Amino acid sequence: MSIRFEHAIDVARGPEQIFAILDDLSQTPRWVSRCTGIEKLSPGPNTVGTKVRYAYREGGRTGTMDGEIKARTPNERLTVGYSDKMMEVVVDFQMTKKDGGARLAIRSTSSPRA
C-alpha cells in the first residue's frame, strides 16, 4: 500500500525563481528538515536521468536513498524518484503562474518495496 501526500501553496515568486531553488538539489536541506544532503552523482547540468543520493536523519536513524531525476521541464516541473532496500519515493513539483506569483503543487508517493 502506498502513502500519498499532496499539497499546493501560492507563492509570491514566479515559477522561474521557484524552479531555480528546487533544481539546486544541494539546497534541499534548507527546506526539508529530515534531509541532511543530496549528492549529485552525474556530471553536468540536471537533466532527466541525473543520478543523486539523498541522505536523511529521522529520529535517531540515518540513511541514504539512491535517486534519479524522472521529469524536468524548466520553470514548470521537477520529479525525482528515490529508493533504498525498503522504500520507493517519488516527489513531484509542479509550478504554474498565478496572480503575479505562482502556485506550487507538491505530490509525494511512498511505497514499500516488495
In a few lines, what is going on in this structure?
The chain is mainly beta and 114 residues long. It contains 1 helix and 7 strands, in the order βαββββββ.
Low-pLDDT sequence parts: none
**Cα distance, first to last residue?**
10 Å
**What is the radius of gyration computed over CA atoms, rounded to a whole number of angstroms?**
14 Å
Number of domains: 1
CATH superfamily: START domain
Provide an overview of this structure.
The radius of gyration is 14 Å and the shape is globular. It has a single domain (3-112), classed as Alpha-D-Glucose-1,6-Bisphosphate, Chain A, domain 4 (2-Layer Sandwich), CATH 3.30.530.20. It is built from one helix and seven strands. With 114 residues, it is mostly beta strands. The mean pLDDT is 95.
Topology:
Elements: E1 3-11, H1 15-23, E2 35-40, E3 51-58, E4 61-73, E5 77-83, E6 87-98, E7 101-112
Antiparallel strand pairs: 1-7, 2-3, 3-4, 4-5, 5-6, 6-7
Question: Which features would summarize this protein structure in a list?
Answer:
Alpha-D-Glucose-1,6-Bisphosphate, Chain A, domain 4; 7-stranded antiparallel sheet; single chain; mainly beta
